[in-house]
Design goal:
Helix content is 61%, strand content 0%. The protein is an all-alpha fold. The protein folds into two domains: 176 residues, Serine Threonine Protein Phosphatase 5, Tetratricopeptide repeat (Alpha Horseshoe), CATH 1.25.40.10; 74 residues, no CATH class. The longest helix is centred in the last third of the chain and has 19 residues.
Amino acid sequence: MRISSRVASLIVLGTALSAGPVWAFDGTATTQSSAPALPVVATSPNAGMALRSAVPTAPAASAPSLSSLQYSADEGKAVAQFKLGRMYAEGDGVTQDNLRAFDYFSRIANQHAEDNPASPEAQIVANAFVALGRYYLDGIPNSRIKPDPERAREMFTYAASYFGNADAQYNLARLYLDGVVAPRDAKNGTRWLGLAAHKGQHQAQAVLGQMMFNGDYFQRQAARGLMWLMLARDGATPQETWIYDVYNNALKRASDDDRAMALQLLEQWVRGRRD
């Protein structure tokens, strides 16, 4: 897929804006520690993380509804293109075809990259960029799409910077923290991770909570870390066992004071989200 010069400049700008000192999210400057062992997360586009959006999950498509979607997609309707891309990625009502899914997501990215971030379809466009990033990260076996971590970083950076997409911010954080594109970069990784966690991205909350609880890259804040892990546990799917494991491990190690303070912080968080 092609990227316009304006999109490319925004990718560079997004990386530049993320530079700066690393801060804990209560305003406390952090200390560097040895690289933490971050949880292993499934990277396949079919894992669902990259494809979550405001668009309801489509039921198994009958022939007429599939034809209708294809017609709308050919007319350039981003919603139809995204639904078809997700259906082919997940094998939902159609034979799974990741390359065809990639092509639908690419259409959206090519045609709508410069849409207003406040437009009704903006998050659909952002999610298409995230899905493309996941495909570029792993590649598609037996196809023209080869693993290309740098290209994946570009997709995530654009969606994270221009659209402010939380899933993109989490994926970008993992690239930096896991050292996928370059040596580990805690400065950029923790910044993007914090942005995603504060937007309610539960996987980011889990990793951030683990790091704060253990004191990895941050001054240790056990209660605040446990709070993030509580939020992550509440948002996790049954398949995301790594989140439950990280939470349970921290809960066993937490003191009674840590647990009490975590509950207070959680109450403040919930109250703040309601206001």
